[in-house]
Specification:
alpha/beta, Rossmann fold, 2 domains, 4-stranded antiparallel β-sheet, 28% strand, elongated, P-loop_NTPase
Length: 304
């Protein structure tokens, strides 16, 4: 299977400031991928590199087996909705659909028109008169209407209220399932991603800290609470991700590729939000990215 995005030692700098450092990824097809991290972590840079809007400073990146933005054929295979869900304010919804038809060789007119009807939008309405949620839905319709193999969305729900966010994500997953489209979705709203994503990438300080299938990542991580002890006193095979101590107790988040051994501790599962916040809160820019060496096993099914 061809990876939807493959990067090796990918780097991007703006002047002297690193925006992405030593990024190595191999994302298998058929997933809705959540890309998370604090502001300035490199999320938008990675997505722009994947679309061909930027050229890397170092390393390599391929999308669907080809160089991003390498020609009309490659551009037709990738849909992109930027952070502000850009639309042409003076054009009507119908104008946007006609423009999509003229610019995209695989344009699905029936899908786009049905989706606008399902959203109860008036095709004659000017885009500049739409609400933020409606503009985001129009941008998604145009991007999905080109029938891409990969849909890339950069913070598409950031400005929407909770109800509009939920409706947008519901329509996104429905569209992706109907069309067999892979999706990479960047967002700060982890609870929203938890509803729709089955693959996770965590970026912190320009580096990949974690990447893999959500169910496998959650199964490999545990929170354990025990009597006060040093991390070195834990059984071998446990990678300590974070550690907190009180006068009497220690709390660790650990990672293990084998079943958690029975010890004198209380073990708890982690949610996706727990997992993300742990890696963001403990990331040290000087450390080797945590995902290197661990993603190989997670992506073995993709033929890496």
């Amino acid at each position: 299977m061809t990876a939807i995005l493959q990067a090796h030692a990918l780097g991007m700098q703006y002047g002297r400031r690193p925006a992405l450092t030593d990024c190595t990824l191999n994302i298998p097809p058929g997933h809705v991928v959540g890309l998370v991290g604090p502001n300035g972590a490199g999320k938008s840079t990675l997505l722009k590199l994947a679309c061909g809007l930027l050229n890397p400073t170092s390393g390599s990146i391929s999308v669907l087996g080809n160089t991003p933005g390498s020609g009309p054929g490659q551009l037709a295979r990738v849909g992109f909705v930027a952070q502000d869900a850009p639309v042409y304010t003076n054009l009507s919804i119908a104008d946007h659909l006609r423009l999509g038809a003229r610019l995209n060789p695989r344009w699905d007119r029936g899908f786009a028109e049905r989706r606008i009807a399902q959203l109860d939008l008036d095709p004659k309405q000017k885009a500049g008169k739409l609400s933020g949620g409606q503009r985001a839905q129009l941008a998604l319709t145009v991007a999905a209407g080109k029938r891409p193999e990969l849909l890339i969305l950069d913070e598409p729900v950031a400005g929407l209220d909770p109800l509009a966010r939920r409706e947008f994500l519901k329509n996104l997953t429905k569209s992706a399932a109907e069309n067999g489209t892979s999706v990479i979705l960047s967002s700060h709203l982890i609870s929203d991603l938890e509803r729709v994503c089955d693959y996770l990438i965590v970026l912190v300080s320009s580096r990949v800290r974690l990447a893999g299938k959500v169910d496998q990542l959650i199964a490999a991580h545990h929170r354990i609470v025990c009597t006060l002890r040093d991390p070195d006193a834990l059984p071998t095979g446990l990678e300590v991700i974070s550690a907190e101590h009180t006068d009497r107790h220690s709390t660790f988040v650990v990672r293990t590729d084998t079943p958690l051994p029975a010890e004198d501790w209380a073990a708890q599962p982690l949610s996706m939000e727990d997992l993300v916040l742990t890696y963001i809160g403990t990331a040290d820019p000087g450390l080797r990215p945590a995902t290197q060496g661990s993603q190989t096993a997670l992506d073995s099914e993709a033929g890496r």
